[in-house]
Amino acid sequence: MRSNQHSAKQIPEEIGGTHVASQSYQENVAADAVADSLSVDDLYLSPLPTTPHRKHNPQAVNTKLKVKRLSEDRLIQISDELMQLAEKIRYFHPLMAEAIDEAWDATEEALRILSRDELW
């Protein structure tokens, strides 16, 4: 009998999961209380409102294409002028040429954006 008492003293109380089980039980009760307080409508997102379907106005489409073509032509012209200016000034003022190169890079980025139809 003495050996049973001695072995019982060496076994910590956490073995057997009594502490963990009571904590998880409290968490489950708290989660059930939160779930009971929610209604079915709170569980789902409300649907997005639909946008009315618009017909494309041919005049607006033509105007948009015209603006796009004019913008593209002007950006190409500016890009060429910036490249020529940077080449002329590069020897005399390298820092200024670097700033002009950055402006040229910006025109290239603008042309890429302009070419993406989904952004129009």
What order do the helices and strands come in, and which of them pair?
Elements: H1 2-10, H2 18-37, H3 40-43, H4 58-89, H5 94-115
Helix pairs in contact: 4-5
Description:
This protein has 120 residues and is an all-alpha fold. The protein has 5 helices and no strands. α4 (58-89) packs antiparallel against α5. It is elongated, with a radius of gyration of 36 Å.
Q: Please estimate the helix content.
A: over 70%
Q: What integer value in Å does the Rg equal?
A: 36 Å
Low-confidence stretches: none
Q: What best-fitting shape do the alpha-carbon axes yield? A: elongated
Reported for the largest beta sheet, the result is: none
The helix tally amounts to 5
Q: In sequence order, what are the helices and strands, one letter per element?
A: HHHHH
In percent, how much strand structure appears in the residues?
under 5%
Secondary-structure-derived class: mainly alpha
Task: Average the pLDDT over all residues and give the rounded result.
Answer: 76
Number of strands: 0
Measure the end-to-end span: 89 Å
